[in-house]
Every structure is written in structure tokens, then in C-alpha cells.
Amino acid sequence: MRRSRGSRSKTRYKLKKSTRVGRTNPITKKMQIFDSNDLVHIIIDPSVHKGQPHPRFHGKTGKVSEKRGRAYIVEINDGNKAKKLIIRPEHLKMQV
Questions:
Q1: How do the domains of the chain map onto residue ranges?
Q2: d(Cα 29, Cα 78) in Å, to the nearest integer?
Q3: For residue range 33-81, what is the model confidence (pLDDT) as tens digits?
Q4: Cα 34 → chain centroid
Q5: Rounded-to-integer distance, Cα 44 and Cα 51, Å
């Protein structure tokens, strides 16, 4: 039988939550507001499946270009190619 290669394959360690007790995901992550031209880090929250980008973009930094519904359009460079990703705010973190 052929091996399954879903969107979360080979992500056992990349999409693992911390095992420390008391580290829950606050509701404020969903209520984050970003403006256009904000720089954000793409940090995937594995407990929220909706609005997740592909795991290859985990840890990348991009620029918010616009808001679409509850999600944001984030522009990144993947090698030499510019890409636009649709990501919900739970998976984004403001660059400090």
C-alpha cells in the first residue's frame, strides 16, 4: 500500500506543542490585529487546524498585505519566488 503524504506529513517535531504544564493557548491570539506592511513571524499553532499554512512556511517571516475575512494575506519570498499565503491570526506573531 502506498504511503500517505498529507499536508502534515513529516511534521512530528515541528508541529509539537510544548509539554510544560499550564501553557494554554490564550484567546487573545485569535483577536490579534495586524495592519498592512506589518512584519510577522509564521509560527503554526498545531491545536488550531483552520487557517494553517503549509508546514514548510513554519518559522518564516513575511509582510501583511491585506485582511481577507478573519485571515490575513502574508507575502513571503520562497527562494526567488514571491508567494502570498492566507493565514489566520492564531498562526502569526508580531516581529519585535
A1: 27-94
A2: 26
A3: 999 999 999 999 998 999 999 999 999 999 999 999 999 999 999 999 9
A4: 14
A5: 10
